[in-house]
Amino acid sequence: MFVYNVLLNALQSASYLSTLSAQRLNNTSKADIDIIFFNRATKVGSESMLELFLALEAYNEFTVDKRGLHQIMWTKMERWVQQEIAKRIVDLNEPSVYISHVNWIDFDDFDLPKPIYVNMVRDPVERVVSWYYYIRGSYRNAVAFNKFPNRKVQSEEWFKKNFNDCVRNGDEECQYMPMEVLQHTKDQKSQVLFFCGNNDNCL
Length: 203
What we know:
The chain has helices spanning 2-17, 22-25, 46-57, 79-90, 124-134, 138-147, 156-160, 163-168, 193-196; strands spanning 35-38, 63-65, 96-99, 116-118. The protein is an alpha/beta fold. It is found in: Golgi apparatus membrane.
């Protein structure tokens, strides 16, 4: 029965995919305001997208709002936090781009006009591996040390640890815990949150 359901779902998905078109996939026409909300999923190439937006800012006469780059990254946001971010976005001058690592926000839920959503996805395993080595990068850690010289520096063993060994040893930073909100490993949360929102069924 399980195999039947999987096959049925696959066939239905294939049938649905054949009906998609560029026009149906483009959300721009459904937006209420001329503001892009790039709620960037982590480790999917969003740094490159950020640089692209900054490079095009003057040429295309729009404003990149960078405040979101400096805010806390929440695994799951309280309703008041979502509302505060949504209000900040709709208050921007048009045209603008707001960039931040935040989950999808339902602007309808706050009776606010909808922006244009932009985001990207990545193979989930590649994404976790990328984060694992990213936090061990010498440049990133040198910048962090200059900012916070009193912060504990990880051991040489930690910097040299291989991802496969980390998984085999069951180290905490290489464990994905479903439904986890308070994560100690910074970036093990599912990228589904960036497209689904802040409800428990998105975790």
